[in-house]
Sequence to fold (743 residues):
Amino acid sequence: MDLVPALKEPLQQPLKSVLGPATAKVMAEHLGLHTVGDLLHHYPRRYEERGQLTHLADLPMDEHVTVVAQVADARLHSFASAKAPRGKGQRLEVTITDGSGRLQLVFFGSGVHKPHKDLLPGTRAMFSGKVSVFNRRLQLAHPAYELLRADTDESVETWAGALIPLYPATAKLESWKIGKAIQTVLPSAQVVLDPLPDSLRDGRGLVSLPEALLKIHRPHTKADIADARARLKWDEAFVLQVALARRRHADAQLPAVPRVPAADGLLTSFDVRLPFTLTEGQQKVSKEIFDDLATDHPMHRLLQGEVGSGKTLVALRAMLAVVDAGGQAAMLAPTEVLAQQHHRSVVEMMGELAEGGMLGGSERATKVVVLTGSMGTAARRQALLDLVTGEAGIVIGTHALIEDKVRFHDLGLVVVDEQHRFGVEQRDALRGKGKQPPHLLVMTATPIPRTVAMTVFGDLETSVLDQLPAGRSPIASHVVPAADKPHFLARAWERVREEVGNGHQAYVVCPRIGDDVDEPGSPKKAGARKKSPEDEAEKRPPLAVLDIADQLAKGPLHGLGVEVLHGRMPPDDKDAVMRRFAAGDTDVLVATTVIEVGVNVPNATAMVIMDADRFGVSQLHQLRGRVGRGAAPGLCLLVSEMPEASAARQRLNAVAATLDGFELSRIDLEQRREGDVLGQAQSGARSSLRVLAVIEDEEVIAEAREEAARLVAADPELETLPGLRTALDALLDEEREQYLDKG
Fold:
């Protein structure tokens, strides 16, 4: 084993000892690269062929770009300015072309001399700079450039066909400088330890890691790039899946108390009370959960389902099963509004079964308590007492449940609602309150593509509810183009009045509260240049709840009962507003996204989402799920001022076109970088995915998961695979290791 540190050494060398302190500092600060190994894993974003020119026609505004193009024209102009009053100022304008479009480069002052000499018509070069607009034309001001010369000992064909790697770069460090730095450290790739077992590599025809690194940074052909990417995708998928497989394996060794419901106990009494039968999906998922609860190691299960598929009912039955078996269950909700809502609906569904110890309560009943940060001292003290004595079988609360003073008699199950809103540390703190590790059920209302579930929640078994309960109504969704067709917006308010006239209620959702505190999404000051309609729509401050509620009450919804709900209201006020709306005393609720999850008012049939383009696809799907929860059909109107051709409008059209949350989550993922989606599971810049695309590489991820499970079952400590252990250490820096430990 003494060989391993020696072999690792070159890759762990700090960049400053190889490239010099100035370059190393920029790489560390701007690209998060600190060692030779980090730099070798900084892969090209794409490749240009010298003989081929890039597309100048669709350059992104305000972004730093590198283009390969040919000089079409270069002109030197003189002008007068404050610094050069006698007309001695100089400006060099160079036009470059790629066949698809033209781009102007501009150089000023003493900076014109070198480019004037270098950039003659016909010259090919790489240009790097920030795209801006001047006189309605795209330009790069003072770009850095690198001439592409055919070396004398290289034939024209070889030169023209050579592939130029273009790296993710910054204004401080151009792509070609990164390329030169990589060429300096590339020999170190030869001593890189290979994380993949030989049998796996040979069985799948993958090249070795040293060869893959060489081919990705210095490819001779496009086939070289394909070989390298195929191999590097496997590294990313496999190393992550091994980390998760080891987590699952370790969890399986932990002890837990099996929780088997009594044959004729609380759960049976509850099922008898239900006014409907469970869907096939609910029965199947409940069986998976009960089988897990009956084992002597902790359940780790992810329950995901469509909006309104009945996840809360499934979770409640699991909680009742644990109470039946002598334990307690805790449900962690992300907001006070939701905790109160869950508490109300659980007590309602359970009836006298939730009145344990109370007059009129059933003999099989338990007590259901709520615990939030804003409760009064007396109510809080009573709730804490009920938990520590075991009087309360079920507690529903916010992060207040995690505080040190909260003690349980025998915590057997933790249900986390909307997992992505809780830090791992918070879940871990709650799980630590059991005498032995409690069972864990994580619920998410955002349908997750299978591949993301395997990558992010790979240490959880997954149950999916994709069937809507009988009696749920379809929701019609339409985009309302407020700028193009203002009369459509007027019609939207008429539709709201019609729904209220038919005895129903409506939501109006806005992105912002509007009480002038700095809010996320508030725009920065706009620049002076003329904006496109798309820019104008984006730069305007997002519409605000307080403004819109006022306008509606005085204008199109005059005479209707309009109330507001937002996150900065005192908790008691929020609860009172929600109760009035649930009771039907309010016609229209103008709210922020506090109503996004879990709020259940079956009589609400219409929703108007203002500035819908400011919300993500999954968020829109969540919001829409608040209507159509009763017998009457639901209507969701997505109001936007974005132009028809914009990406934002296409996103809204996609939401309007399907009610399938799984399909929408795939669209959402394709439009965003995986890193955004993987969030904390990919914490740390160096461990995020580089070549693995979560949606495209579904097959690789599924196969890597199987291979990893097989390997970890045979050798949990990876004693026979030093290269894999080294790769895991690199992936699981301290923060990441803790994350998986707590996950």
Notes: Confidence is low (pLDDT under 50) at residues 1-8, 518-535, 675-687, 734-743.
